[in-house]
Amino acid sequence: MKTALSSLLAVLALGSAAYSAAAVHYSSGETSTALLEVYTSEGCSSCPPAEAWLSQLVDQPGLWRDFIPLAFHVDYWDQLGWADRFANPAYSARQRGYAQIGSARAVYTPGFMLAGQEWRGWFENKALPVAKGQAVGVLDLKLDKDNVELSFKPQTTAPTDMIAYVARLGFDLDSKVVRGENAGKLLHHDFVVLSLQQVAAKQPLNWSTRLYPNEQGKRQAIVAWINQPGQLQPYQAVAGWIER
């Protein structure tokens, strides 16, 4: 009996360890990788088609290398009768920030920002452009369990006061909406920003932090980008799957 119990505990321990994030190392290319930021809400009836299109990018060969999608769920539609469980006022503030500096004409959903500039191509049924950015340098990301290490090797002289952002993304998430504009619908989500943290450099062009815990989603990814203080447009970005 003791032997059987010991075996069971060993199996459970192995299962728990397998679900912990394994060590991974990702590097960007020399040219800047574009962030595709999609501002969305479960309370917006226009958003499900945009998110269905976004989900198709999971299988695109250029994912993480040529473009990095993020779905920021905003909270300003929660007042319509359905509170989006993924919404965060900080994400709404980020979108408003783009409008305030003139990078977007207004605050709305679904809203698309590509490499820090408003992109209206989705509304015109255009393919996502994957033009190469400027040669800026390589951003390295190391994730070991929940410990994140970032370092940037600039190709030319780069600002040394840059800050980093680290996001955890969740995939294959469903919500059954019972109120609001999407009442009665089962919504499917990918690239959901589950957490976003700002990280100050521990020394010039080097950052470290612990990834916020959030186990939602059948699959997860990590995204990191850097920019100068007071700016929203990413300078360089890197991303990859979180291995289990």
Distance between the termini: 31 Å
Q: Helix-strand pattern, N to C? A: HEEHEHEEEEEEEEEEE
Oligomer: single chain
For the record, the count of structural domains works out to 1
How do the strands of the widest beta sheet line up side by side?
A: 1-6-7-12
**Main sheet overview:** 4 strands, antiparallel
Give the number of helices. 3
- Give the proportion of residues in helices: 10-25%
Count of individual beta strands: 14
Beta fraction: 25-35%
Stretches with pLDDT under 50, minimum 5 residues: 1-19
> Which structural class do the helices and strands define?
alpha+beta
Please compute the radius of gyration using only Cα atoms: 19 Å
Rounded mean pLDDT is: 91
Shape: globular
Signal peptide: 1-22
Protein name: DUF1223 domain-containing protein
Organism: Pseudomonas marincola
Keywords: Signal
Précis, in short:
This protein is an alpha+beta fold and 244 residues long. Helices cover 16% and strands 35% of the residues.
